[in-house]
Amino acid sequence: METFQADMPPIINDTSKPWFSRISWIRIGVVILLLLVIPVLGLMWWWDNEPEAIDGVAITETETIARGGQIGAGTMTAEALKQVVNQMLNKRGGYLSNDMLSPAVFMDNMPNWEFGVLVQCRDLARALRNGFSRSQTQSVEDIDLQEAEPLLSFTNDRWLFPSSESQYRKAITALESYRVRLEDADPQDARFFARADNLADYLGVVESRLGSLSQRLSASVGVVAIDSDVLDVSIPARTSPTPQQGLVRTSWFEIDDVFYETRGTAFALAQFLRAIEVDFASVLEDKNARVGLQQVIRELEDAQQPVTSPMILNGSTFGLFANHSLVLANYISRANATLIDLRKLLERG
């Protein structure tokens, strides 16, 4: 009897992974990536926060009275400088400008904010060393300020030994020593001369800083600038040289950098000027300049209002979207204009 066997399909040994297995591995990879990225983004958001200004004048008065010291001239200014440097180093995330690890290496807002603070600290430390603590140009420099000023001028992005933070912390120690010596009973131990010419010289430096920042902020939309530096001084006086004009525009990648550098400048400067208002009270009253200084402080504090936008917008001048740089430039320009009038008052006999 003949039997018939149905044709059977050949058996193929398929060792390749099924499609659903490959998708599973993709999902696992996405989950792992999210587990790595989300904490980094959260830490960046947490660190990207400007510290709140403190009432250094009130704190200094309370601490000095508690120690039994004297609130002499210069105490507030020295303490304000020390406190601002301390805030820069001990805010959320610490000092970020020289960090080489994630997530700080991907951040640029706070490092630029720190740089704005640091420039103002350097300017005030230099004014303390060269002007406020000396009666004349032939006077001997204060030993603590002689140490603090170059320490604050140390490069801001060094992470190898000695790191930037270590140098700035040494500057804090030197400033504390100077402030303590101002409070003791020996008037020859540490000196602070609250004179109109010293203050005018310092405000002149501040004026140039704010003027530069105002121009850089305004250049976010492009401004036509006249370059007076190219004028040929050898041309006879009867000839009118033609200055060169050009469009100056801040790079799109640097707009938020300039914005946060200015915010850091306003943060530090407002606290310094509040301390100066106390230490130079008699000079300001004599020159009828206290109101002008208070106006500058108010403009700088208004420039630090919270930014509610998730990013720094750069709309056109009268466009649909806001331009945060121009708004900030408005506050800085008004503060700078008042500073010019204030310095003129101080320079009058």
Structural features, described:
The longest helix is centred in the N-terminal third of the chain and has 29 residues, at 19-47. The chain is built from 11 helices and 2 strands. Helix content is 58%, strand content 3%. It is an all-alpha fold. The chain has helices at 19-47, 56-67, 75-90, 109-132, 143-152, 164-183, 196-218, 255-279, 281-286, 290-302, 324-347; strands at residues 223-227, 244-248. It is globular. The chain has a two-stranded antiparallel ribbon with strand order 1-2. The mean pLDDT is 83. It folds into 2 domains: 52-193; 195-231 and 245-349.
Q: How much helix, percentage-wise, in residues?
A: 55-70%
Give a short account of the largest sheet: 2 strands, antiparallel
The ordered string of helix (H) and strand (E) elements is HHHHHHHEEHHHH
Mean pLDDT: 83
Rg on CA atoms, Å: 29 Å
The tally of beta strands, per DSSP, is 2
Structural class of the secondary structure composition?
A: mainly alpha
Attribute tags:
mainly alpha; 349 residues; two-stranded antiparallel sheet; 3% strand
